[in-house]
Design goal:
Blueprint lengths: L1 E3 H11 L4 E4 L6 H9 L3 E4 L3 H15 L3 E5 L3 H4 L2 H9 L4 E7 L20 H5 L6 E3 L6 H13 L6 E6 H4 L2 E3 L17 H10 L3 E5 L1 H5 L3 H11 L3 E3 L14 E4 L6 H7 L5 E5 L19 E6 L13 E5 L2 H12 L28 H11 L5 E4 L3 H9 L8 E3 L8 H12 L5 E6 H7 L2 H7 L5 E6 L4 H11 L13 H7 L3 E5 L2 H14 L3 E6 L17
Parallel strand pairs: 2-3, 2-4, 4-5, 5-7, 6-7, 9-10, 9-12, 10-11, 12-13, 13-14, 15-16, 15-17, 17-18, 18-20, 19-20
Antiparallel strand pairs: 1-8
Helix pairs in contact: 1-2, 3-5, 3-16, 9-13, 11-13, 14-15, 14-21
């Protein structure tokens, strides 16, 4: 039986259990838009294609399935690229579909041409996806879609891209069905016995958890390993959600937003640093000095690209599926949960400049937020000082409830992520932690949440500036340029203009009241928090040099 290409695609979405698809329409992809409605799949109209890519990624993360983002040809496709980059960092299987005016007319002058003769979307998506191809004939769809799905789900998962011209979408081809390949055998390391020996021999180890530990959902595994061997735990900025912050073996975060106690322990003569899911980038190791260098490193990672490249100590890499290999480590060693006494009281890093008495500190704001949020609430941190204040001050009661990028780091990405995630987990409160700078990047996606009835809580710290840039530049060079808004954004008024509920808070009581109202409202709510513009954020270990 023959069917049109656009029908086959939408049938696959339906069979995969996809309930929502994200995008902004255009002529070259209009057949897909119309067919989505015919199959009862909700088309979430974003306000910018980048936001749509973030939303599809949040949906994939929360629902544990494929996310779908669709953009038209030319600039509609290029606008999706940040979303693909973010999906790649979070190892999320997201299918990005872009258009092309016509395959048969390719080579002639075309408006919004996406081929090799103009803005070649296939090449532009290659660095930010695991697979990128142009479907130049309808009969190639089966093979190219199979390639895309296998790449998206094999090993370290990630986004894929298909550019499908309008006339190819309209072609009739033989019907077929490809299930999501979500049961591919994990990549197994043959070196688990070496990992067991290294841990057994260690006298003063540390367990360093990165964002990959969150992406691989290793919460139970790392707890068993920590408790069985009594290993102190440190988290990178992106790894904060991997471990309960009130666990007796937790030392705190390291790097931006890290704790003083974790830093001191790292300097105390570590003989084995067990790294789980961290590429050890400059953000993760911000402030790392020679006296923190461990004698050996044991690194659990999917890919060799960055393993053993940052810390020069001898490194044993356990390559492959992180969760599976940790499970094998537990089985081979007979590891089990054990009770432990608290290593030390949790230490907060004091700001180097005291806030003004009349101003609200970011730390107080996040402690107020934590006080009223249920433990299962899921937090998405955006790019900026606000998230590092959260890393330092927001307690993680239930692992797997805090997500923060540490490499691609797109401003405003958390706004879209939280919207898609709330669709994927409607039963759980979802909070976007963001700032006024990020709001001016992608804050219009709040209108998407309002129009589709998605009750996300947007917790916005407003200090009238690009705080991380302004404070870092000032601290390191004595001045800053272009980082302070002469007329700051009125966040609550901006939110009201899009139909969201909005509250402006200047103290802890107002924050708690606003969060409680937001939890009860079942509506998109923006909570603007007016914080001290002079407060020094915990980011100054990331030095700027103009030498």
């Amino acid at each position: 039986m023959k069917k049109r290409v656009y029908t086959l695609l939408v049938e696959h979405f339906k069979n995969w259990g996809i309930s929502h698809v994200f995008g902004i329409p255009g002529k070259s992809i209009s057949p897909l838009m119309l067919e989505l409605e015919n199959y009862g799949i909700e088309y979430v109209l974003g306000r910018h294609e980048a936001g749509c890519g973030f939303e599809a990624s949040g949906y994939a993360l929360a629902k544990k399935t494929m996310g779908i983002a669709i953009g038209t040809s030319g600039p509609g496709g290029t606008n999706l690229i940040p979303g693909a980059g973010h999906a790649k960092e979070f190892q999320l299987p997201v299918l990005f579909i872009t258009g092309q005016p016509s395959m048969q007319e390719t080579g002639r002058a075309l408006s919004q041409d996406s081929s090799q003769f103009s803005v070649d979307l296939v090449k532009m998506f290659e660095p930010v996806t695991l697979f990128s191809a142009r479907v130049e004939r309808g009969d190639l769809l089966h093979l190219y879609l199979k390639h895309a799905l296998e790449k998206a789900y094999t090993g370290e998962k990630g986004p894929v891209h298909l550019c499908i011209p309008f006339d190819v979408l309209m072609e009739e081809v033989d019907s077929f069905y490809l299930p999501l390949p979500d049961h591919i055998s994990p990549l197994v390391s043959p070196d688990i016995d070496k990992a067991v020996s290294l841990i057994n021999e260690a006298k003063k180890p540390v367990l360093f958890l990165g964002k990959g530990a969150v992406a691989a959902e290793t919460y139970n595994q790392v707890r068993i390993i920590a408790e069985h061997w009594g290993i102190p735990v440190v988290t990178s900025t992106g790894g904060k959600g991997a471990f309960s912050t009130n666990h007796p073996l937790y030392l705190g975060g390291y790097g931006l937003g890290g704790s003083k106690y974790a830093t001191e322990y790292m300097k105390s003569g570590i003989d084995l640093m067990i790294v789980v899911g961290s590429k050890l980038c400059d953000m993760s190791l911000s402030g790392f000095t020679a006296d923190m260098e461990p004698e050996k490193v044991l690194q659990f990672e999917y890919d060799l690209t960055f393993a053993g490249k940052t810390i020069q100590a001898p490194t044993q890499v356990i390559l492959g599926d992180i969760q599976y290999n940790l499970n094998q480590l537990i089985l081979q060693s007979g590891a089990s949960l054990k009770e432990h006494e608290v290593l030390a009281a949790r230490a907060q890093v004091a700001a180097t400049t005291a806030p003004m008495e009349s101003a609200l500190s970011a730390g107080a704001a996040f402690r107020s937020l934590r006080a009223v949020l249920p433990k299962e609430a899921v937090i998405f941190g955006d790019a900026g000082s606000h998230s590092f204040h959260a890393v330092q001050n927001f307690e993680i009661i239930e692992p797997g409830t805090f997500y923060l990028a540490e490499m691609f780091i797109t401003m405003g990405a958390a706004i879209g992520f939280s919207i898609g995630a709330k669709i994927g987990m409607p039963e759980r409160p979802v909070v976007c932690v963001t700032g006024d700078g990020c709001m001016m990047m992608h804050g219009t996606e709040i209108s998407t949440a309002v129009n589709h009835g998605i009750p996300v809580i947007f917790f916005v710290l407003n200090n009238g500036r690009l705080d991380m840039v302004e404070k870092g530049m000032s601290y390191n060079t004595g001045r800053s340029v272009g980082a302070i808004y002469e007329r700051p954004l009125d966040v609550s008024l901006f939110a009201q203009s899009m139909g969201a509920m909005a509250y402006r808070c200047e103290n802890e009581i107002e924050i708690k009241n606003a969060v409680q109202l937001a939890l009860q409202s079942n509506a998109a709510t923006v909570i603007e928090v007016m914080v001290d513009p002079l407060e020094i954020p915990p980011i100054l270990t990331r030095l700027l040099s103009l030498d």
